[in-house]
Amino acid sequence: MAEKVTSLQVAQRAGVSQSAVSRVFTPGASVSKKTAEKVKLAAAELGYRPNVLARAMVSGKSRIIGLVVAYLENQFYPTAIEKLSNALQDHGYHVLVFLASQTSGNVEDVMDEILDYQVDGIVTASVAMSSDIAQRCQAAGVPMVLFNRSQDIEGITSVTSDNYAGGRKAAEFLLAGGHNRIGYIGGWEGASTQRDREAGFLAALKDAGTALFARETGDFQTEKARAAALRMFDVAPDQRPDAVFLANDHMALAAMDVLRFDLGLSVPGDVSVIGYDDVPPAAWPAYDLTTVRQRANLMVEETVAALMEHIDTPETANPRRVAIDGPLIIRGSARVPEGWTK
Amino acid sequence: MAEKVTSLQVAQRAGVSQSAVSRVFTPGASVSKKTAEKVKLAAAELGYRPNVLARAMVSGKSRIIGLVVAYLENQFYPTAIEKLSNALQDHGYHVLVFLASQTSGNVEDVMDEILDYQVDGIVTASVAMSSDIAQRCQAAGVPMVLFNRSQDIEGITSVTSDNYAGGRKAAEFLLAGGHNRIGYIGGWEGASTQRDREAGFLAALKDAGTALFARETGDFQTEKARAAALRMFDVAPDQRPDAVFLANDHMALAAMDVLRFDLGLSVPGDVSVIGYDDVPPAAWPAYDLTTVRQRANLMVEETVAALMEHIDTPETANPRRVAIDGPLIIRGSARVPEGWTK
DNA sequence: ATGAAAGCGCTAACAA
DNA sequence: TTGTTAGCGCTTTCAT
């Protein structure tokens, strides 16, 4: 079996020094055309490829980005991971995945593990971040960007959609549709997405002089969202909201099922439903969910750009909080006000 | 800012040799209780953590598993990745993700990149594998297991569901339901899952003396599956199949939408539909899809077990082809034959 | 049980 | 442009 081929072996075969080989495989190095060719030939014959780990040790750059994810149930994340991983591959980086679930300890432990791998940067997708952890990364000189979460921590870059504005859009649409018994089913209360979406939603309601009619929490989970929907809608008709905004599509889809199949209500005839994310199933005809789109492509682009900037030019890179505006995608699950078009 | 702490610094602070520190952080090494305590204290004070990359260089074990994925559209994969990553974390490994998409070159290039990272093992999820590549990995001494794909290559371990048996189950259920104009919409023809599912399906049909009524290809993609469904069902009623089996749920969901919303047909009144995978949306009331379940948990367990075996005891580990039987989950999208129960 | 010393495969000064 | 030399931070003999 073909054993590990080192740069030294290539050097010997090509009749050059080991460092010459190293130079040939280092983008910006100075080598003559002739040497380069000799080396490349020898390398090809031997099947040589540089050892990334050895390179990482001496150069201090592993070309690995640590990605911390909490859960993948919400389909927004798989999509985002795919795009993120792709974008980073184009920059010569690869993604090392860390799941911050119960079985593997808490976020703090995970961050330690990440740092052990000498990653060049960290992306946390929807994970609560203590300022303590953030500081440790900063101390270690490892840039971090929060994806789909913002945090009130000085000097930490985050990329989100404009959740506040998105919440407003949902409310304005419902208001324009003539609804006046409007409910809200929130996500996990610790999430900035939940807070900001609700804040925008409530602000727009308030601006219109309307009070929230009902509120429940679904914790971003299917079963809890179903339970929340039942609590809110399995009541006397005159106690029932005529519209509901849910903090994400995942919950909105579950709520639509409860409304239509458990309670026999019509959507949007009896109740208008709006979600947030615009995950693929939201567009499926069986749901046709009106929702605020998160522009995953843009969010990923900004994330990668920020990360590269922090890695390449740490001195000049300044932390920022990017909030990307997303459109309300008008479909059939909420009554369409006069003058608005799909 | 806290600079990088090395084992040497810890050693000096603890008043021991650098190798003593190494031993304390190496599970099976011999250190006295006293030294261990001194070292641990010093390490804690300094915030020392071993550098995984340096360890990998000398030990030859990176504790990194390369994962090659083609696409994450099919929701079976995100789920599987999450479980896989979790299981590997419990064994002290982490997953480095490689996407084998167009933008990043073909599978071959990706495999080279993976090997550059000195991974201890490779899992390929639904990726076509040439015997050439497989051999290169074997030559490099890196164990590989194929997840959800089998391949006719000598000596390569794969873990799949029992797709042939699953295909049979779908056919038998449809047959028992009294259907006699049965159609099949296949996935990407290069996939072993597609081939095996169809082979089992056709075999059961043949056993019953029934011929396939119609066949189309959906390539495992939403849009192509929609188009295939339209070709198959947008015809004169007497030319229309009364049942259809699709090679995965992703396509089955799309087909149900076409049937009900584009063509105004009733499911299962006019047409029975069966899918394969049992992804979460299959259970949603709006679809309530009858489907063959892939037991992701078991598949992941087997994958991890095989991988660990190949890594820990390469001599005694023998390649195997694991096919895990999965039940037919009877829901509402296909007529339930007398005597069968949900 | 512990320390000294020799690398793992590579990059990055530094000379030449 | 090239070769020589010195490490990167760690594990692992080998003595002691």
Summarize, please:
Chain A is α/β, with parallel strands linked by helices. Chain A has helices spanning 7-14, 18-24, 33-46, 52-59, 76-90, 107-116, 131-140, 163-176, 192-207, 222-233, 249-262, 296-312; strands spanning 64-69, 94-99, 121-125, 144-147, 157-161, 182-186, 214-217, 243-246, 272-277, 290-293, 321-324, 328-329. Chain A folds into 3 domains: 7-50, no CATH class; 61-161 and 295-324, Rossmann fold, CATH 3.40.50; 163-294, 3-Layer(aba) Sandwich (Rossmann fold).
Kindly state the mean pLDDT of chain A as a whole number? 93
Q: Regions of chain A with pLDDT < 50 over 5+ consecutive residues?
A: none
Judged by helices, strands and strand pairing, the structural class of chain A is alpha/beta
Can you tell me the overall shape of chain A? elongated
**CATH superfamily membership of the largest domain in chain A, which one?**
Response regulator
- CATH class identity of the largest domain in chain A: Alpha Beta
Strand order of the largest sheet of chain A: 2-1-3-4-5-11
Residue share in β-strands of chain A: 15-25%
How can the largest sheet of chain A be summarized?
6 strands, parallel
The percentage helix of chain A is: 40-55%
Per DSSP, the total helix count of chain A is 12
Q: Oligomeric status of the shown chains? A: homodimer
The count of β-strands of chain A is 12
Span between termini of chain A? 62 Å
Topology-level CATH name of the largest domain in chain A = Rossmann fold
